[in-house]
Amino acid sequence: MKKILLLLxxxxxxxxxxxxxxxxxxxxxxxxxxxxFLHLNDVYEISPLEGGKVGGMARVATVRKELLQENPxxxxxLSGDFLNPSLIATFKYEGKSIKGRQMVEAMNAVGFDWVGLxxxxxxxxxxxxxRRIDESKFQxxxxxxxxxxxxxxxxxxxxxxxxxxxxxxxxxxxxKNTVGKEVKMGMFSVVVPSNxxxxxxxxxxxxxxxxxxxxxxxxxxxxxAITHLNKVDDEKLAKMLPEVKxxxxxxDHDNMLFKEGNVVIAKADANAKTVYIHRLTFxxxxxxxxxxxxxRAINEQIKDDAEVxxxxxxxxxxxxxxxxxxxxxxxxxxxTVKIPLDGRETTMRNSHTNLGDLIAKAxxxxxxxxxxxxxxxxxxxxxxxxxxxxxxxxxxxRVLPFGGKIVEVKxxxxxxxxxxxxxLQNKGNGGYLQWDKISQDDAGTKQWLIDGKALDxxxxxxxxxxxxxxxxxxxxxxxxxxQNPAVKNIIEPDDKDTNDIRNDIRKVLITxxxx
Length: 515
Description:
By secondary structure, the chain is of the alpha+beta class. It has two domains: 5-306, 4-Layer Sandwich (Purple Acid Phosphatase, chain A, domain 2), CATH 3.60.21; 329-514, 5'-Nucleotidase, C-terminal domain (5'-nucleotidase,  domain 2). 24% of the residues lie in helices and 34% in strands. The strands form eight sheets. The protein has an eight-stranded mixed beta sheet, covered by helices on one side. Strands 8-7-4-3-20-21 form a six-stranded mixed beta sheet, with helices on one face. Residues 1-27 have low confidence and may be disordered.
C-alpha cells in the first residue's frame, strides 16, 4: 500500500548553463509531481477598476499566497503587456518619466516569477525599457525578440550587480520530490511583431517556436509556452506544435479557454479582472500529464495583501497629486454605462467603436460655432480596454492620458477628403481616424458624406480636431499643418482661460457625459 506523503519539491530553473533552485512542497503520491501556474496577461493598472470592484495587484498577491499554501510549487507569470499603456506612466516622479516603473515595483512586491514580452513593452524608449528590466526581480523569457544595436542582434539583458544577464530563449524547470522522482518542464515565449522599433528585431514567431520546442523536447517531459499573439495565431501555433501542452496567452483582452487538438489555449481578462490558474499533474511512472484550468475572478471578495497594498497606495497618491494639478477629481462619477465602451487598441485602430463615436460627438458639442464634422486620431486613446458601469474622471484620464487641445479648423473640401482617405490608409495604427457626422456612401462608390451630404471638394468645412493633428504629427499626416494653403483658419482656445474646456479633450468628454 502506497503511503500518502507530504513531498518536498525542489524547483530548479535552468537558463542555458546557469541554474538556480528554490524549495517547494506539495501533497501527492510518490510518483506524482504537481505544478501550478498563476497566469495573467495584459495588465496596465495596479489598482482595482470599476470603482474598486475588479482587478488590483494587491488582490492578485493574496491569490498567489493562497496557491503557494496549496502547492508551494506555484509559478506566477504574465504573458506580456504591462509596461504600457497606463495613465500614471504619462507623468513624472522624482524628475524622471514613470513609464511602467509603478508596474514593475508592484509586480516585484507580488512576487512574479516569469514574464514574456508583449508588444506594448516596446512603446517606451530603449533607455526606459532597460531601466524597467534592471529594476525587475522577476525573470524574462524571449524566444523571438532580440535587441538591435545598429544592426548587431543580441538578446535583451538584465543588468544585475554589474553583470549583464541575457534573456533566455528557452528555459527548463526541473521539479524533484523527496524520493528522487523528477519532472522536467520546458518553456518558451513569443510575441507578435506589431510594434516595430529600431532597437527591436523580431524573428518569425512560428519558426522561433518550432526551434524552441525542438531544442526543449529531447530534454523535457513536456513543454508549455507563454504567447503574446492573436487568437488565430495561437491556433496556428497549436496546430504546428501539437505536442505542446499549454499556451498561456495574451494580446486578446477577453478570457478564453479552448483546445486546438490536444493543446490547451488560455487567456485571462485584461487588467487582472480575472486570472487563470492551471494545475498540472505529471505521473513520473506513466509519463502522463493531466491539467485543470480554473478562471478566477479578481474582485472585492478577495482581501488586499497588506505589503502590496502599500506599494499600490504609494503610486495612487502620486497619481492623485498629478490629477489635482490637472484640475480633475478621480472619484467623480461622470456617467454610468451598461454597454461596454470599446477602447481596445485592436478595434479602435481598425474600425469605428462606440467609445470613438462618443469622443467625437463630445468634440462636436464643444465647438463655439456650428461645425460640419469632428475627427480625431485613434492613437490618442490609450486605455486598450473596455469600460462598463460607473465611469469616473479617472477612467476618462485613462482613456485620454495625453489630454491636449481641440481646435476648430476651416479647410477646403479637397483637403478634408485627403485627410479622410489618409485615415483609412492608416488602418491598424494610431493614425486611423474616429469621427462624428462623417460616413461613406455604401452604394459602391464609397464617396465621403458629411452630415449625410456628398463631400464637395470646392466647399469650405468647419472641422473639430485635436491640435496634435493640425500640427502634422500623426502617421502620414505631415501635410496637415497651418501652412497648408487649403487650411483657411484655425480657432484655438486661450491657454489662460481655465474655463474653456477645449484646452483639454478630457474635460470636453467629461462635460459631454455629464449633460
